[in-house]
Design a protein that fits this description.
single chain; 252 residues; 2 strands
């Protein structure tokens, strides 16, 4: 069918664009790579985005339990459909990650237990070896000796994933009482020092104040486009980080 037109929500989109355009809920499937000339590179970008988000959902505490896992899977399915796996496989992978740890474990111990136990858990849940290989490729807890990409490219990809996830979470307008916990989980999930907790909270709060009182997703999208930059400045978010966020939101 190639790039035939398919119906998605209230828009007609090409099959390729489906995974990059805003949907009716204002979420971003992923906006990197839409202009990639190389089709293989294009598909790899979408794949990396999917697995990074899936792995992150498996690690953060907010998606523990059947109902919360269902929410995570619904979010993924709304963006990617069955492009990489079905809902049942997504659920099994989330359960495999979560069964390696307990919610009260310190971060370092959680990471250690995932490294030790994940393979066995994935086997127990019947996850195909080809999918397991992809998880190990994209999870930073597992060194990937077969990855020939330069370190600088991997670092840039990791930063892109972080900022896309940060914006996606922020668009949910997290209340101030929950921002600290959400910031901890985001930083833990990426095991990196791309940003500080203080900065993440400032970004959360900027979106929250920007969208406060909005009556619909359309109204929220409009407010973000017109006012987000001012709120980021008001919350003293560094200019370099503001630039990355505005790029994700396609605000010029």
């Amino acid at each position: 069918m190639g790039d035939s037109i398919i119906y998605v929500g209230s828009k007609n989109m090409s099959r390729k664009d489906r995974y990059y355009k805003k949907d009716n809920w204002g979420m971003y499937a992923r906006n990197e790579g839409i202009y990639a000339e190389n089709e293989k590179e294009y598909k790899k970008t979408v794949e990396r985005r999917f697995y990074t988000e899936l792995i992150t959902n498996g690690k953060v505490k907010k998606f523990y339990g059947p109902e919360k896992r269902k929410l995570a899977i619904t979010n993924l399915f709304n963006k990617y459909g069955n492009l990489f796996m079905n809902k049942e496989t997504m659920s099994s992978i989330l359960r495999a990650y979560q069964s390696c740890v307990t919610k009260k474990m310190p971060i370092e111990e959680r990471q250690k237990q995932i490294q030790i136990q994940l393979k066995g858990r994935l086997d127990n849940y019947g996850i195909k070896k080809s999918i397991q290989k992809k998880l190990y490729e994209y999870d930073p807890l597992f060194p990937n000796p077969t990855n020939n990409k330069k370190k600088s490219v991997s670092k840039n990809n990791k930063q892109d994933d972080f900022y896309n996830t940060l914006c996606e979470l922020s668009r949910r307008t997290i209340p101030t009482s929950k921002q600290s916990k959400e910031a901890d989980e985001l930083i833990e999930a990426f095991e990196n020092k791309i940003s500080t907790k203080k900065t993440v909270i400032a970004v959360f709060n900027s979106y929250y104040l920007c969208c406060l009182g909005s009556t619909s997703q359309k109204d929220k999208n409009k407010r973000i486009k017109n006012n987000l930059e001012n709120y980021l400045i008001r919350n003293k978010v560094d200019a370099r980080i503001r630039k990355r966020i505005l790029a994700v939101e396609e605000i010029k």
